Amino acid sequence: MTSSFPASTALGYPRIGPDRELKRALESYWEGRSSRAGLEETARRVREDTWRRLAALGLEGLPSNTFSYYDQVLDTAVLLGAVPARYRHDDDLTTYFAMARGAEGIAPLRMTKWFDTNYHYIVPEIGPDTVFSLDAAKPLAEVREARALGLETRPVVVGPVTFLLLSQAAPGSPDGFAPLDRLDDAVEVYARLLAELAAEGVGWVQLDEPALVADRTAAELAAVEAAYGRLGRLENRPALLVASYFGDLGDALPVLAGTPVEAVGLDLVRGTAHGVEALAGKTVVAGVVSGRDVWRTDRDRALAMLLAVRERAGRVVVSTSCSLLHVPYDVERETGLDPALRERLAFAEQKVAEVADLAALLAATPGRHLPGHSAPEDRPHPSRVRAAEGRAPYAVRAAAQAEHLKLPLLPVTTIGSFPQTGELRRARAALAAGEIGEAAYESMVRAEIEQVIALQERLGLDVLVHGEPERNDMVQYFAEHLDGFAVTRHGWVQSYGSRCTRPPILHGDVRRAEPITVRWAEYAQSLTSKPVKGMLTGPVTIVAWSFVRDDLPLREVVFQVADAVREEVGDLEEAGIRVIQVDEPALRELVPLRRAEQAAYLEWAVEAYRWATSGASEHTQIHTHLCYSDADEILAAIDALDADVTSIESARSRGRVLGAVGAFPRGLGPGVYDIHSPRVPGADEVEHLLTEALRTVPAERLWVNPDCGLKTRSYEQVEAALANVVEAAARVRERLFRDVR
């Protein structure tokens, strides 16, 4: 073992490629247009370019095993041999992608949000009979790959406690079983991994334990102590860095301090240095450069924090607060941004340079104090709150809407977007480049809306959407039409697998200068006698999926956006749109990780949504949508949104939410079609899901819809799937009528 940790490091780095090279290679491979060898070569180049660039930027401690073809939690499941039998295939990559994306007749593993980020991870299944077995090929290969370039790296692996806490009990597990019950067995595999890495000459290994920054029970803390006591006492192993991020370790800090691990990583951007003196004698990897935002680091404040930690704990290493997976690659490519704004920004490359600069500054700063500075404290801000007037009671609204909309039992709708074709994307790029005019582009958008409306009418849907062909992204589109936002050209961030978004930069006060969506909704409604939904993104989600200014409380920024959404709702209603969907898929995502802070957040987040929607009349049906975010954990808050209809992910999680909804008092659409998998559900499968939903949701309040928008699917997949959804709804509807007769 070595006791010397490099003076500067990052806990992880983006892996999709600066120009989304991996995204394109993955999608080409999935579609059968390229070989496995081609995919692997692209992956190798991405890894090599990353290591070379980090070294060139002056980073001393280089991470490896942070690359992934899909998700690091899924990688860990493969590492531990925790692969359910139904996915196993002779080809390892086929097995891997079947777990992530599904296969013919086999649904994929559940997917949900990685803590309070917009990154999605694949949820492993662990049961009493899961056989753990080490497959260390990937981390070993990356160590060797980097070494061939003359670079030593630190393999990064999701730690055993976090891995098991984020897993779910495998189907058929006995009542009361929890994946953490298998800790001893899993830790033995980690021990074998460490032995193999030591034999490879690896000096340090990073085990990520972000689950420790949430509230943990005494039993869970005992599991931490047991796991790292066991691993720390191994005779032949690399030195261990246990990295936490996204908040304070709290009660877990003294537990880790009492184990034989050599280093502990602290998030000193979202967390504090409280209790850091307990780590005296260990290396503190101090995360003072934020991995979650795009603002330049306040060097004086960061240095003050580093010096305070050094005074109280001793050996300090400068680091990012978490992996840089959550930020874009390089702000210098954003030549279209206002120069004054760009000067305030730091993407992954700039953040790595900040880490290296701070490490040099810390080494050159004698003593333990920086005169005139202290560790940063939270500053209170005044907040302006809007009081939402209440709409009429739901029963009154439901009766008025039933009379006005005249919908059948089990109405079928979609969440909003239809496939974004290559032709649409090319036209949008050509418009941005000035190669085509606005009139030509809008003519193409209108033609696409016409096709989408015609397709839905032909399939027999009941509440239609215009398909959102004019939108590049459900948040970016609104950011482009609101004051206070800037958008990037190359600022891609991975959301899951090959899916990337370009989060807008919310840097000033938010205002709506003019209507944003009205003309497209109005045009779509003119093409059909069926109701067409106006489609809006909610205020919490717009803020959550942006990089947000840090000089105002988050709640105040959200209410500024809520003002703009409220104005848009009013204009849609005035234009004759009588079904308006205001999506809040990020409502669960922003819930604080500590229970003590959750009630206050949910109170103002719900109030912001109600402010945005409560101006609508009782005849206007307000929908909302939540997906892939464990929404069953905040059902009381979802109820408090007071939407007339809530659509929610359910197909991918196999109806998990239905076990929690109970007597949900308004319309509910538990998804029956997992759109994040290319597989097309059959009519029998959808009928079964609807039948199960009817055990919990009364037929008069049950809606039929996919789990999420259809943007990422092909028209061939969508048409086949929606035809089966409509057929299944018709079968169940007919059965209900027969039962009544």
Automatic annotation (TrEMBL):
Recorded catalytic activity of this chain's protein: 5-methyltetrahydropteroyltri-L-glutamate + L-homocysteine = tetrahydropteroyltri-L-glutamate + L-methionine
UniProt cofactor(s): Zn(2+)
Catalytic residues, chain numbering: H676
Protein residues bound to L-methionine: I415, G416, S417, E468, D583
Phylogenetic classification of the source organism: Bacteria, Bacillati, Actinomycetota, Actinomycetes, Streptosporangiales
Pfam family for this entry, one: Meth_synt_1
Manner of cofactor binding, per the entry note: Binds 1 zinc ion per subunit.
Keywords carried by this UniProt record: Amino-acid biosynthesis, Metal-binding, Methionine biosynthesis, Methyltransferase, Repeat, Transferase, Zinc
EC number(s) recorded for this UniProt protein: 2.1.1.14
Binding site for 5-methyltetrahydropteroyltri-L-glutamate: R20, E21, L22, K23, K113, R499, C500, W545, E589
One MF annotation (Gene Ontology) recorded for this entry: methyltransferase activity
Function per UniProt: Catalyzes the transfer of a methyl group from 5-methyltetrahydrofolate to homocysteine resulting in methionine formation.
Pathway(s) served: Amino-acid biosynthesis; L-methionine biosynthesis via de novo pathway; L-methionine from L-homocysteine (MetE route): step 1/1
GO biological process terms, semicolon-separated: methylation
Residues in coiled coil: none
Cobalamin-independent methionine synthase MetE N-terminal domain mapped to chain residues: 8-312
HAMAP family: Meth_synth (MF_00172)
Residues the record lists as binding Zn(2+): H625, C627, E649, C708
Residues that hold L-homocysteine according to the record: I415, G416, S417, E468, D583
Family: Belongs to the vitamin-B12 independent methionine synthase family.
Source organism per UniProt: Microbispora siamensis
Sequence ranges assigned to domain Cobalamin-independent methionine synthase MetE C-terminal/archaeal in this UniProt record: 410-730
InterPro entries noted in UniProt: Cbl-indep_Met_Synth_N (IPR013215), Cobalamin-indep_Met_synthase (IPR006276), Met_Synth_C/arc (IPR002629), UROD/MetE-like_sf (IPR038071)
Protein name per UniProt: 5-methyltetrahydropteroyltriglutamate--homocysteine methyltransferase
